[in-house]
């Protein structure tokens, strides 16, 4: 066999695959509306682009940087975390990575031994389970039911806990559901994790994208004991519209950060120097553009939500953060004669030219994910086509 067992078992990212297919059909001349990617449609703010241009033209960005990121970037991450979380970390507790995605990958490589278990609430972001498996760990799925606003309870976590439970992932606001855990819920989960010596992997990447008065509570802020067991995952991709620059970071325990740095030093050397200069400006410069983009997402959500919720057979909880709708389409599929969400999504693409992502990749085969990180005109047209598609099939 040419491929390793690991490579054979790996599921490619369904979101990237759906986006690639939509692009391919578009290039072939079809009028495809793509609601696939978790990628803001705004270009990176001017001040951030300028910082990178300057670093390139002066030659500063020509060279390798330290594997953990330039000292100025690590300091910028410390300052941003102080401003947003009110927490003071040492620069040695911070490592910059090639996107939050590689930060997570390296984190699992750093803490997971063979057969160690990581609890993952379902629905989950597509990469968690695959990355745990790549580290030879075992994902343990816990159902975050729509009836409980897509959140898990301590009782459920306790039922899933074994002697091999090494970590639990909390992604609030969540991709794909947009749910946010309350302070009380997080405190209970944090205390449970501390009591059982379980690492909390807090994927806070959507922390600044919250809407309609809802608030993001970083779990690390809830007690000193919880903070010591928390590994924060964050980055500039979503808040600053910088998905292409590939800068994320991990914050937490010094020894784990050191191990992630060693892994990065052997795997990637460092993240792009020009991107690091851009990220310094993003994190320390004028923050106005973050709020402008947040408001645009909020307006789209408020326009789009009632339209999608009103589609026949759809059950949809209003998201509180991130930029996705995650409707349950079981009723819609039943009405239209579908039993498999992948087929439903495929037909929607080929017949109505609307690209969404199957919920199956998120562990939720009754749902589809629609990203509203695209302009309102496209979104509204997509919902119209979806309505017409359902109408035709019913
Ligand atoms: N975590 C979540 C929940 C995400 O949705 C994403 C991107 O889609 C990431 C992490 C990774 O972000 P990036 O690698 O662009 O920093």
Structure description:
Belongs to the class-I pyridoxal-phosphate-dependent aminotransferase family. Residues 31-386 form the Aminotransferase class I/classII large domain. The protein has two domains: 5-44 and 289-389, Aspartate Aminotransferase, domain 1 (Alpha-Beta Complex); 63-284, Type I PLP-dependent aspartate aminotransferase-like (Major domain) (Aspartate Aminotransferase, domain 2). The chain is globular. The longest helix has 22 residues, at 288-309. By secondary structure, the chain is an alpha/beta fold. The chain is built from 15 helices and twelve strands. The chain binds pyridoxal-5'-phosphate. Pyridoxal-5'-phosphate binds at residues 38, 99-101, 125, 171, 175, 203, 205, 235, 237, 243, 248.
């Amino acid at each position: 066999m040419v491929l390793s067992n690991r490579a054979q078992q790996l599921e490619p990212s369904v979101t990237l695959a759906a986006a690639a297919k939509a692009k391919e059909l578009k290039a072939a001349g079809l009028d495809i509306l793509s609601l696939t990617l978790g990628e803001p449609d705004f270009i990176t703010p001017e001040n951030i682009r300028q910082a990178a241009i300057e670093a390139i033209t002066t030659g500063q960005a020509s060279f390798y940087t330290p594997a953990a990121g330039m000292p100025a970037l690590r300091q910028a991450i410390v300052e941003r975390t102080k401003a947003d979380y009110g927490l003071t970390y040492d620069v040695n507790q911070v490592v910059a990575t090639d996107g939050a995605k590689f930060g997570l990958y390296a984190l699992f490589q750093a803490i997971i031994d063979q057969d160690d278990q990581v609890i993952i609430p379902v629905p989950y972001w597509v990469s968690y389970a695959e990355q745990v498996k790549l580290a030879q760990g075992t994902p343990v799925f816990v159902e975050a039911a729509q009836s409980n606003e897509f959140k898990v309870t301590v009782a459920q976590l306790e039922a899933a806990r074994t002697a091999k439970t090494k970590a639990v992932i909390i992604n609030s606001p969540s991709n794909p559901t947009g749910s946010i855990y309350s302070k009380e819920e997080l405190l209970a989960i944090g205390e449970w994790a501390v009591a059982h010596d379980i690492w909390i992997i807090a994927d806070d990447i959507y922390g600044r994208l919250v809407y309609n008065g809802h608030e993001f509570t970083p779990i690390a802020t809830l007690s000193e004991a919880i903070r010591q067991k928390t590994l924060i995952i964050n980055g500039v991709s979503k808040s600053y519209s910088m998905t292409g620059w590939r800068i994320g970071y991990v914050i937490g325990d010094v020894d784990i950060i050191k191990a992630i740095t060693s892994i990065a030093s052997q795997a990637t050397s460092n993240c792009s120097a020009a991107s690091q200069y851009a990220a310094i400006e993003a994190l320390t410069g004028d923050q106005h553009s973050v709020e402008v983009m947040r408001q645009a997402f909020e307006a789209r959500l408020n326009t789009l939500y009632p339209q999608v919720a009103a589609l026949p057979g759809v059950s949809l909880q209003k998201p509180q953060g991130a930029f996705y709708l995650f409707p349950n389409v079981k009723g819609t599929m039943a009405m239209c004669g579908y039993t498999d969400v992948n087929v439903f999504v495929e037909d929607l693409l080929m017949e109505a030219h609307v690209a969404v992502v199957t919920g199956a990749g998120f562990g939720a085969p009754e749902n589809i994910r629609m990203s509203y990180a695209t302009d309102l005109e496209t979104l509204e047209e997509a919902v119209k086509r979806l309505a017409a598609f359902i109408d035709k099939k019913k």
